[in-house]
Amino acid sequence: MVSYIIRRLLLGALTLVLITFIIFALIRNMPGDPLTMDLSMVDPSKVISPLEYERMKKSYGLDKPWPQAYVQWVGNLVQGDLGRSLSWKKPVTTVIGEHVAPTLILSISSLLLAYMLSIPMGLVGAVRIGKMDERVMSISLYMLYSFPAFVAALFLQIYLSVKLGWLPLYGMTTTETYDTLDTFGKAKDIMMHALMPIICYTYGSLAYYSRFINANMQEVIRQDYVRTAKAKGVGPSSIVLHHAFRNTLIPLVTMIGMTLPGLLGGAVILERIFQWPGMGQLYFLSLTSRDYPLIMGLTLMFAILTLAGQLLADILYAVVDPRIRLN
């Protein structure tokens, strides 16, 4: 297994180089640059001389050709320096660190809810296959899976916030009163703001995982060892929980590794709609402001998480299924 992991790490390093090289080339060749984005925000009547513009380009490190700039970025990365955000005026690592917690609040809550609800729903669906309640649940899950999350977000905002006034419309905290609240009050305030984003994050995953477990359970139930257990007089609940479901866990456990990038990736559209200060919102702002160091820092982090998630999924697959040999 060690040699397999070393090979995967070397392949992952090569993949990272290719990803960062392509993304760096793309963003440096997009229309506009950090200076033009900054200048668009200032007084239109203010004229910047060509000499001043060149001086500003040099101060931003934009005076070099992009291949040379990429080599310089890699050199700084090897020394542990991701650079300084051009729009936030802070180190990239600091900016990313400030936005990790809000995204984790949504993603971890959503992931736990999805697993806690989807496993019993999938089991019930497999046991009650063909019955009216199973058909109703299946149709409802299909409808949820096909319903776009951003549309659901707008509906929730209109009904729960604008019409009923039950939940805050957007943001992570109530700006006017948050600092005056005690710890419990602050936690409740964040929870009330996070409720609608968590619902939108969760229902699609819930539908997918439930259908996934249901389909795998139906396949496992038809296996010979399950028929043998039935012939021996094993009870239905014991067959489902101790024989069928344990084998269904194999592909389910490997999916945990694949969810790793999503934990920090955030959802750009949902965080934008709810004005949630997470990683998705940060990525969107970095693109619109052409903040090259921040874009590269976020791209590198997401690429590492994706590769690590795939490696973790492969290792988990070998751990839970003895038939798999990684080498």
Quick overview of this protein structure:
This protein has 14 helices and no strands. The chain has helices at 2-28, 34-39, 50-60, 66-78, 92-127, 132-146, 149-163, 183-221, 224-231, 236-258, 260-265, 268-273, 279-288, 292-320.
Describe the protein.
The chain has 327 residues and is mainly α. It has 14 helices and no strands. It has 2 domains: 1-92, no CATH class; 100-320, MetI-like (MetI-like fold). α10 (236-258) runs antiparallel to α14. It is globular, with a radius of gyration of 25 Å.
CATH homology-level superfamily of the largest domain: MetI-like
The assembly state of the depicted protein chains is single chain
Number of domains: 2
In CATH's first tier, which class of the largest domain applies? Mainly Alpha
Shape: globular
Task: State the distance separating the first and last CA atoms.
Answer: 6 Å
Poorly predicted parts: none
- CATH fold category name of the largest domain: MetI-like fold
> Helix/strand-derived class?
mainly alpha
Percentage of β-strand residues: under 5%
Average pLDDT across residues? 85
Fraction of helical residues: over 70%
Write the element-wise H/E pattern from the N-terminal end onward. Answer: HHHHHHHHHHHHHH
Task: Explain the layout of strands and helices.
Elements: H1 2-28, H2 34-39, H3 50-60, H4 66-78, H5 92-127, H6 132-146, H7 149-163, H8 183-221, H9 224-231, H10 236-258, H11 260-265, H12 268-273, H13 279-288, H14 292-320
Helix pairs in contact: 1-14, 5-8, 5-14, 6-8, 7-8, 8-10, 9-10, 10-14, 13-14
